[in-house]
Design a protein that fits this description.
alpha/beta, Rossmann fold, four-stranded antiparallel β-sheet, disordered N terminus
Length: 450
C-alpha cells in the first residue's frame, strides 16, 4: 500500500507547522561508551523523591535497586552502571537547580544475573494483570516522552474508571528529535508486544499506535507487524505540531476531547510514549529495569549527529563528545527539542529517564528577535491547541493577577510553544505562561495543605 493513499487524521483545534529538521532519521541507534562516573538523580519522575538505599563505599551492580519509590506516585531507581558509590550529594540538573543524586564510580560492567540481556524476542506472557503492573513498578518505568509520570500509576486507573484503549504515542512531532522513529524501526515488534502487555494489564480491548506521516517507513513496518496481534491498529497522522500532546493525540485518534481539568482515563484512554512502551517490554519480558535510554544528539553543524543509547547518569558532555564535539558556532545548548526543551547552562548535567535529546543550535538560530507590543492579531489564539488565550495570560502574569489566571484555565496550558512560534511581535508568551502555571500550581498546593 502506498503511504500517499493512507487516510491521515489530526486534532481539531489549533496547531502549527514548524520545519521538522529530522536530520538523524536515518541514523541507526549507536550504543555509547560507559561514563567514568554516573550521577543518578533521585528526582527523575513526577511525585515524591526516591529514597536512597546505598551510601558512600557501597558496591553496586547494573540493575540493582539503589533508591526506592517513596509513595504511590514515585518511582524506583536502579544502578545504571557497576562500581562503587563515591558520594550521595546534590548536583545541578538541566534546570540548573541542585538535586540529590547518587554518584557511582564505574568499575567494569557487571549486571544482575536476573536480567535477560539477550536479543531474543519474547511474545508470550503468562503473568496476571496485577503482576504485570507490579513488574513495571519494580523496574522504575516512567513516561519517557518528557513528563516522567510513573507508568505503574497510569496503568492503575482509579475505581470506576476503565480504559477502553491504550494509545502508543509514536508521533515525535518535536523538531529535530528522532529517538522514537529509530526505535520503531529497530525495536518495532518489541513495542507492539509492550502495547499488548499494557492492554492486558488494564483489560483494554483496543490498542492504537499513532505515527506522523513523515515516518512512512515506520508506518508501513508497524502495520506489517501489527497484523499478527489482535486488537492493535496503526494510525497514520497528519504532520501538525503538537500532534504528540496527550489530549491532541486522543482527539486525533478517537475523536474524543478530554474536558478541562480531566484526565485521559476520563474518556477511556491511556497514552504511552513509544520509548516507554519498549521499556515496558524490557521490564516485563526481560526483567530489565530502566537503566538506559535512547537520545537524539543533533544540530546542523555537528559532525556525527545521531541516535545514541546511553546509560542514565552519563554526563551530557559525553554525548556531545560522541557526536563529534560542540561546534564552534554553537550559541545554545538545549535539553530536548526547540519547542519544549530547556536551555542548558552547561553540559555537566546528567542524563535522566526523561532526557529526550541534546540539541546544539548555531548562533543564527538561537538569537531571540526584539519583542514588540501585542498587535491584537489573534494568531496565538488560533494556534493554541487547547483553545486558550495566550496573550491574555501573558498580560495577567505580568501584573501578577494569579487568581484571574487560574479562572482563565492557565493550568490547561501544555507549554507547547505554539503561541510564541506564531507571534509576529516576537513576544515571550511561553515564558510568562510557564511563570503563571508554576505560580498558580504553587498557590493551589498551598490551599490544599492549609
Amino acid at each position: 500500500m502506498k503511504t500517499s493513499a493512507l487516510r491521515m487524521k489530526t486534532f481539531k483545534i489549533g496547531g502549527i507547522h514548524p520545519p521538522d529538521y529530522k536530520l538523524t532519521a536515518q541514523h541507526p541507534i549507536h550504543t555509547t561508551r560507559l561514563p567514568e562516573t554516573a550521577v543518578v538523580l533521585l528526582n527523575q519522575h513526577l511525585g515524591a523523591l526516591a529514597q536512597p538505599l546505598v551510601g558512600k563505599g557501597d558496591q553496586v551492580k547494573v540493575g540493582q535497586l539503589i533508591a526506592k519509590a517513596n509513595g504511590f506516585i514515585s518511582a524506583n531507581i536502579h544502578a545504571p552502571v557497576s562500581g562503587k558509590v563515591v558520594k550521595v550529594e546534590p548536583v545541578a540538573d538541566v534546570t540548573g537547580y541542585a538535586q540529590p543524586a547518587i554518584h557511582i564510580a564505574v568499575e567494569g560492567d557487571e549486571w544482575l544475573e536476573s536480567i535477560d540481556r539477550s536479543d531474543d524476542l519474547i511474545t508470550t506472557c503468562d503473568l496476571e494483570p496485577k503482576a504485570i503492573v507490579d513488574r513495571i513498578f519494580e523496574a522504575g518505568i516512567v513516561g519517557l516522552g518528557g513528563a516522567c509520570f510513573p507508568t505503574h500509576v497510569k496503568l492503575s486507573p482509579p475505581p470506576g474508571k476503565q480504559a477502553s484503549c491504550i494509545i502508543v504515542n509514536a508521533v515525535e512531532c518535536e523538531p529535530y528529535l528522532t529517538t522514537d522513529h529509530r526505535l520503531l524501526l529497530e525495536k518495532g515488534e518489541e513495542i507492539v508486544v509492550g502495547l499488548c502487555l499494557a492492554m492486558k494489564a488494564t483489560n483494554a480491548p483496543t490498542g492504537y499506535i499513532g505515527i506522523e506521516a513523515n515516518k512512512k517507513d515506520a508506518i508501513l513496518y508497524l502495520q506489517s507487524i501489527s497484523k499478527k496481534y489482535p486488537g492493535i491498529q496503526v494510525v497514520p497522522l497528519q504532520m501538525k505540531y503538537p500532534q504528540g500532546g496527550e489530549k491532541q493525540l486522543i482527539d486525533a485518534i478517537t475523536g474524543c476531547r478530554v474536558p478541562s481539568g480531566k484526565l485521559p482515563i476520563d474518556v477511556g484512554a491511556i497514552v504511552l510514549n513509544a520509548s516507554t512502551t519498549f521499556a515496558i517490554y524490557e521490564a516485563v519480558q526481560k526483567k530489565k529495569p530502566l537503566i538506559e535510554r535512547v537520545l537524539t544528539v543533533t544540530g546542523e553543524a555537528l559532525t556525527q549527529p545521531g541516535n545514541y543509547r546511553v546509560r542514565i547518569g552519563s554526563p551530557m558532555s559525553m554525548l556531545a563528545e560522541e557526536a563529534g564535539g560542540v561546534p564552534e558556532n554553537t550559541a545554545k545548548l538545549v535539553a530536548g527539542g526547540p519547542m519544549m526543551g530547556k536551555a542548558l547552562s552547561s553540559l555537566n548535567s546528567p542524563v535522566t529517564k526523561g532526557s529526550g535529546g541534546l540539541l546544539m543550535l548555531a548562533s543564527e538560530n538561537a538569537v531571540r528577535k526584539p519583542s514588540r507590543q501585542c498587535i491584537r492579531c489573534g494568531k496565538c489564539i488560533t494556534a493554541c491547541p487547547m483553545g486558550l488565550e495566550p496573550h491574555l495570560f501573558m498580560t495577567l502574569a505580568e501584573f501578577e493577577a494569579w487568581d484571574q489566571l487560574e479562572k482563565a484555565h492557565i493550568m490547561d496550558c501544555i507549554e507547547c510553544g505554539c503561541c510564541t512560534f506564531s507571534c509576529p511581535s516576537n513576544r515571550p508568551l511561553l515564558d510568562y505562561l510557564r511563570i503563571g502555571k508554576t505560580t498558580v500550581g504553587r498557590l493551589r498546593k498551598t490551599r490544599q495543605q492549609a
